[in-house]
Amino acid sequence: LSAINANPAEHIQLPSADQAKSKQTNTVLTPQISTQEYKTQLQKIFDLLKSGETYEVNFAQSFIGHPSKNPISLYTKLNKINPVEYSGLYQSSSHSIISNSPELLITRQNNRLITEPIKGTIDIKENPELILNDPKQNCELNMIIDLSRNDLAKISQPGTVKVEITRAIKKLKHLFQGYSRISAQAKQIGR
User: Fold this and answer.
1) How far apart are CA 96 and CA 100, in angstroms?
2) What are the start-end ranges of the E strands in 104-161?
3) How far apart are the C-alpha atoms of 40 and 100, rounded to whole Å?
């Protein structure tokens, strides 16, 4: 926050519709909120952070596009360009959703719940140890570990939440990311 003045929304540069047009797929991506609404929401987030009401916000927005290629082709191309462990394609008669993420939000393996939050990103050409040795990255990773432990504790058997991996590096095609692994035993439903 110290790097941003009293009006952080002034520092936001959003792509125009022309800039958001993908040259490879001829798809125009349309944001679902206006630039002004985005800046207004961002200012509210900064105000909440400054007042101490929250200490982390994952603010994202969605874009809708009408691709000239079919969703399966786009999904396949995206996974060739950016291969990750967690991707998916959902299709219905009215729309498609393509997801491509290196982060495991949550999974269940039998009675075991697992989350692998990521914090810290560095180009594949750089030394990945820079992520592990960076105080800011470590602080962010510690914060997300704490949040993840707290979230898992709400849906898990008491005393079963464990941080299996505190800090590790995940190598992706274009970058390295720092991550952690937290697990717990799921609560028994109906007991």
Assistant:
1) 13
2) 104-109, 112-116, 118-123
3) 28
CA distance 189 to 177: 35
pLDDT at 27: 59
**Is the pTM here over 0.85, yes or no?**
no
User: 35 in helix, strand or coil?
Assistant: helix
- The H or E element that residue 178 is part of is strand 175-185
> Mean per-residue pLDDT for 93-103?
87
74's enclosing H/E stretch is: helix 71-81
For 139-189, how does the pLDDT look when each residue is reduced to its tens digit (9 = 90+)?
A: 889 999 999 999 999 999 999 999 999 999 999 999 999 999 999 999 987
State the DSSP H helix or E strand holding residue 37, giving kind and residue range, or none if neither.
Answer: helix 35-51
d(CA 101, CA 80): 13
Q: Are 71 and 59 in contact (CB under 8 A)?
A: no
pLDDT for the residue numbered 65: 77
Q: How far apart are CA 179 and CA 132, in angstroms?
A: 10
Which of 101, 30, 19 is CA-nearest to residue 61?
30
Strands (E), 26-157: 29-31, 63-65, 86-91, 96-101, 104-109, 112-116, 118-123
